[in-house]
Amino acid sequence: MMTNGDLENTRGPKPRGNNNNNGMYSGGYNGNSSASYYMGNSDSQWTSWLVPLIVVANVAMFIVVMFVNDCPNHNHLQRLSNQCVPRFLGRFSFQPLRENPLFGPSSQALEKLGGLEWNKVVHEHQRWRLITCIWLHAGVIHLLANMLSLVFIGIRLEQQFGFVRVGVIYLLSGIGGSILSSLFIQHSISVGASGALFGLLGAMLSELLTNWSIYSNKAAALFTLIFIVLINLAVGILPHVDNFAHIGGFISGFLLGFILLPRPQFGWFERRHLPANARLKSKYTVYQYVLWVIATILLVIGFVVGLVMLFKGENGNDHCSWCHYLSCVPTSRWSCDN
């Protein structure tokens, strides 16, 4: 997706790939009374404002990055200022396309403003980069693809479950993606919200599983969602796309969905209308509680182990000799070096 970064810097930024998913799973609610409850109390209860705010923040951050990048002045000594595109934008013009074909800034600008870079996180203790890299994008194409995906995925989730739960999933999934990316990619700069977006996809999948009984067309919904996830992960094996951020974000969001997105049983809401001596249903089913416990344990272990390994400076590739193929598969058309 991007070339090898700046002409004098071989560590090019790795945009977290474009999660071009244009919708939710297709499974609808069933036609019984519980469906009427969920339709009336999830889709219409919340007004989405967090997702639009995240979009605005990402766009604003990209403008700041381009302002700091200042292509004409920073490329003056290299005599490349006349190759900035389009030149009439002045300091907001993009790097030469042979350096950044996504219409964006240089690697140095992204690194300066918080791009994820292993050496700075581990040896210079700039751990805030695990969060700041989520708000940076490698170019206009990268930004548009991620923000469109966020709008399609995030708004409906926020309408159903509220801004708190969706915000927690988005942020923690982004951090989870940053941790896994840092463990396996240590010689490039990584930026993008795709880890957080894959977290929302993962949460959609676990939400479908934990609330399985309230959906009609279950099999179609499940296969559709899995197909969307696999297609997006497959895009991540192209060179210069940080698929480890996608995988880390997806796993984090998948576990968080079991924790934050279970829906109560319909019978629990009807307790007010039952006779005093009637047996009350628990708020959640047994399997929902089991999934909640398992997901919580796995999430905590995953984050603790990942952070400990990262801050100790370990290389994930030393513990998994084949894992590098998850982010890039070499072919006769491209190499995965650097």
From TrEMBL:
Keywords tagged on the record: Hydrolase, Membrane, Protease, Serine protease, Transmembrane, Transmembrane helix
Catalytic activity: Cleaves type-1 transmembrane domains using a catalytic dyad composed of serine and histidine that are contributed by different transmembrane domains
A Gene Ontology BP annotation from the UniProt entry: proteolysis
Segments crossing the lipid bilayer: 49-68, 134-155, 167-185, 191-212, 219-238, 244-262, 289-311
Region (Disordered) location: 1-26
Residue ranges of domain Peptidase S54 rhomboid in the record: 125-262
Subcellular compartments: Membrane
The keyword Protein biosynthesis is assigned to this record: no
Membrane topology annotation: Multi-pass membrane protein
One matching Pfam family: Rhomboid
Protein name: RHOMBOID-like protein
Originating species: Lithospermum erythrorhizon
